[in-house]
Amino acid sequence: MMRKADNNFFFNIFRQTMYFIANHHLRPHYCYMAEPMDELIPTRATLIQRLKDWQDQSSWQDFFDTYWKLIYGVAIKGGLTGAEAQDVVQETMISVAKHMPTFEYDPAIGSFKTWLLNMTRWRITDQLRKRGPFAASQSAPEDTGTGTRTVDKVVDPAGPDLDALWNEEWEKNLLDAAMAKVKRRLDPQKYQIFDLYVNKEWAPEKVAATFGISVDQVYLAKHRTTELIKEEVKRLEKEVR
């Protein structure tokens, strides 16, 4: 779980990125995608279109909130330290901003998922290059700030292992995004019942006693919240199709 300090750090990254966008006349870059469409997390075509306006901070905040954990998680599992992964997040966001003015999203041509993976891959490669000649084989274990440690072996950014990590984190991010959206629109008590029973793995009797409800009501809250999450996942999967 991310600590409050970590969340503040990444919020500052977002603010720095927006400052960079607003105060630099960046030369746009054309980007091309050549992978089949297999989007999994909320890559909304309308959101991508809004990102062309660097002054639209609400849309950029939405984009940042959706993708920073994905990029950070892949960098960490790929063998980077916490500080290196933080740099990857910031540099990837800036790189995305530079490309957005001429970015044309066409799911019939290629996948935004693969394009963003490549952007992240290049930034990870940059971090490894800074380490020197031994970076490709070994990374020093370090606390990442999330309760985990970097792996002993660095994943080759150009190899299939990074693709597998990306797909794993992409699907996890999809579920996290769906749960966050459901949580925001659901009655707080109902979501808390679901969270304690499903995520915290409390016994249904303990949850029922905590809220002064019957066990059947706990089961019902779990069922309804689960269905809402499933519906949100399906909506996010189809949103750019």
Q: Can you write the helix and strand succession as a string? A: HHHHHHHHH
Say how many strands there are: 0
Which bin fits the share of residues in helices? 55-70%
What's the overall geometry?
Answer: globular
- End-to-end CA span: 32 Å
Low-confidence stretches: 1-5, 25-42, 146-152
Largest sheet: none
Overall domain count: 2
- Mean pLDDT over the full residue set: 77
β content, as a range? Answer: under 5%
Rounded to an integer in angstroms, the radius of gyration calculated over CA atoms is 20 Å
Structural class: mainly alpha
Care to describe what's here?
- The chain has 241 residues and is mainly alpha-helical.
- It has helices at residues 4-23, 45-50, 57-77, 82-99, 112-131, 160-185, 188-199, 204-211, 215-238.
- The chain is 64% helix and 0% strand.
- Helix 1 (4-23) packs parallel to helix 4, helix 6 crosses helix 9 and helix 8 (204-211) packs across helix 9 (215-238).
Summarize the helices and strands and which ones pair or pack.
Layout: H1 4-23, H2 45-50, H3 57-77, H4 82-99, H5 112-131, H6 160-185, H7 188-199, H8 204-211, H9 215-238
Helix pairs in contact: 1-4, 3-4, 3-6, 4-5, 6-9, 7-8, 7-9, 8-9
Structure keywords:
241 residues; 9 helices; mainly alpha; disordered N terminus; 2 domains; Arc Repressor Mutant, subunit A
